[in-house]
Amino acid sequence: MKFFIDTANLAQIKEAHELGILDGVTTNPSLMAKEGVKGKEAVMQHYKTICEMVDGDISAEVISTDFDGMIAEGKELVKIHKNIVVKVPMIKDGIKAIKWFTENGIKTNCTLVFSAGQAILAAKAGATYVSPFIGRIDDGGWDGIDLIHQIRQIFSVQGFNTEILAASIRNPNHIIKCAEAGADVCTCPLDSILGLLKHPLTDIGLAKFLEDAKKFA
Ligand code: E4P
Q1: What is the pTM assigned to this prediction?
Q2: Residues 138-150: b if buried by 16+ CB within 10 A, e if exposed
Q3: What distance in Å separates the CA atoms of residue 18 and residue 117, rounded to the nearest whole number?
Q4: Which protein residue has the closest C-alpha to ligand 1 atom 11?
Q5: Residue 155 CB-density burial (10 A; 0-12 exposed, 13-18 middle, 19+ buried)
């Protein structure tokens, strides 16, 4: 399973990258706004900086909701860097746009996916990635991991090549469950990635080893 970081924060991207386990980055308009990036030039420059930091797929989301607008935006975005993946919302014009991008050799990430039916449509249109939002599904009282299992089953049976990019991750256990369910990629906040490091027995064990090492230092 590939690890992407789900942020537009450059310090967090750098920290995850320095761990040596980072395969890519996802952003969205809310994450860009959180970093105070303002204006088209600044947004484009921010994506460029991220692309120069991490050698992997970098999702940049369109904000148009009509076919022509999405195509125009996507064409601009892919000029920034060869690793840009155009992130397109799961709406009717989004599916048409994904089909167009696919036919024109441009990678896409279909975002805001909450059902298996939506995932099938994205795959049929040729999306490179489909992004089911695990955390937001859990927030509503359903089970996001069930959806990953269901999409994995469908994609395997049907032979779809679209990669399952588990998104809206809230904690380390989500990452573990996504790995179990066969997600191809997990895009995670830095805290959830770092949470995977933690176990109290590791801390206790290390303290004891260091204490004992003093006996022969
Ligand atoms: C990533 O591609 C998604 O935009 C993101 O994971 C959404 O996460 P959230 O539900 O925490 O906003």
Answers
A1: 0.97
A2: beeeeebbebbbe
A3: 38
A4: 168
A5: buried
Written as one string, the DSSP assignment of 85-116 is EEEEESSHHHHHHHHHHHHTT--EEEEEE-SH
Query: In this structure, are residues 51 and 81 in contact, taking their beta carbons and an 8 Å threshold?
Result: yes
Strands 185-188 and 163-166: parallel
Mean pLDDT, each 10-residue run in order, the chain (217 residues) = 98 98 97 94 97 98 98 98 98 98 98 98 98 98 98 98 98 98 98 98 98 95
Report the separation in Å between the CA atom of 151 and the middle of ligand 1, taken as the mean of its atom positions.
Answer: 18
Distance 30 CA to ligand 1 centre (A): 9
Please work out whether the CB of residue 26 comes within 6 Å of at least one atom of ligand 1: yes
**Residues recognised as catalytic:** 87
Distance (Å) from CA 6 to ligand 1 centroid: 7
